[in-house]
Amino acid sequence: MSKVSIIGAYNTKFDSLVEKNKETGEVKDLKSYYDLMIEAGQGAIKDAGIDPKDIDGIWVGTCSPSMFVNQEHNAPLALEVAPNDLRFVHTTRTEGACASSSIALYNALFGVESGRFKRVLVIGVEKMNLLDTKSTTHALACSSYWPEEGAQGMTFPGLFAEYAKGYMKHYNYSLDEMRRMLAAVSALMYKNGVENPLAHFGKNSPPDKMGLFTAEAILNLPAEGKGSNPVIADPLRLHDCSLITDGAAALVLAPTTEAKAISNKVVEIAGIGSKTERLPINVRPNMHELIAGKLAVRQSFNEAGITIDDVDVAEVHDCFTINQLLSTEALGLSKDGRAGFDYMEGKYSRDDKCPVNLSGGLKSKGHPVGATGASMHALVYKQLAGEPIGVKRTKGQPEIGVAFNVGGSAATNCVTTMRRIK
Predict the structure, then answer these.
(1) Domain holding 17: CATH number?
(2) Which of 98, 241, 354, 414 is catalytic?
(3) Are 415 and 403 within 8 A, CB to CB?
(4) Which terminus in the chain has less CB density within 10 A, N or C?
(5) Considering 200, 288, 367, 377, which one is annotated as catalytic?
(6) Partners of 255 in the β-ladder
(7) Is 288 a catalytic residue?
């Protein structure tokens, strides 16, 4: 089985790319779903230094475009990246909730490994802000187990709050201890995100203006009123939740042997782990850890021939701050039940051996669900290729990086180990 490498990547600006009139309710689209897809695809091909006509397959990861932008049959839209050169190229759309574009990446990888494809394009895209809050909440809830969760009013903050409650109960942590752990995560993400020029919560964003770069600053916010941090789903508060974001990201893959001949920025996909948990959370006996995530980590690391001690940089799926703790533990960076204390002690910053979410993570960079997986891979690729976007690791050039992306209530778990080749 031939190895496959990333030779180019691109990430659009992540933001709320709409203009809303609060008085009339009118919404103006400032950059469409189609615009985002085209920008990301063109950017990745340019970054790879190849011609669009060299692409012989395209995979598009997108979660719920039929609800967000009234568009299904999405894969053929990718031909508009370069219509004259890409017309008639094979296209496929994948869906895996927040892991939609990691699944796209894996299917593209399988295509190259099979020998049927040589150079492929992977695009992740989502446009979420055209809808009002109620409609967005409904669209996202459709990625839960609808009969017993979404249909009963359970939201994703509520689903991950169950993990937070399970974590507190299992390790006998008080609400005050839990809040301090989660605030430490948020503060680090805001501190990193403000230096990411592509982040939704970047320079001059609310966290920057409010100085929310310490756990104390977040804990001291009022529970109500302007600038508050209200409870969204106990124990999770507003600043424990990721953002409703518009954006896209893309990558170009090629066989490693060919990649080394055509590119000076080659990052090999050294190992992947893909494990699926049962969708209804009420049938899971382990609401204090990501068991499927741990299995995916083991699979990815075994395939790459590494341990966590070899990893220099990680992007993990902090859709909610509790999942950053769970993901950090699933990777083996922290012992089970100890990630919160590690974050409170200042670990996993740019100065650490293995920084976590130098991008600012989903909490600060933003979370356009279908684009998130591709974005995580693109930003790890840029770190390993020596072209970091935003914060860079201070302990030298990273050689090995990991992206840990989950879909839905951690049902779909994708862990990719990447190694710099040249």
Answers:
(1) 3.40.47.10
(2) 98
(3) yes
(4) N
(5) 367
(6) 4
(7) no
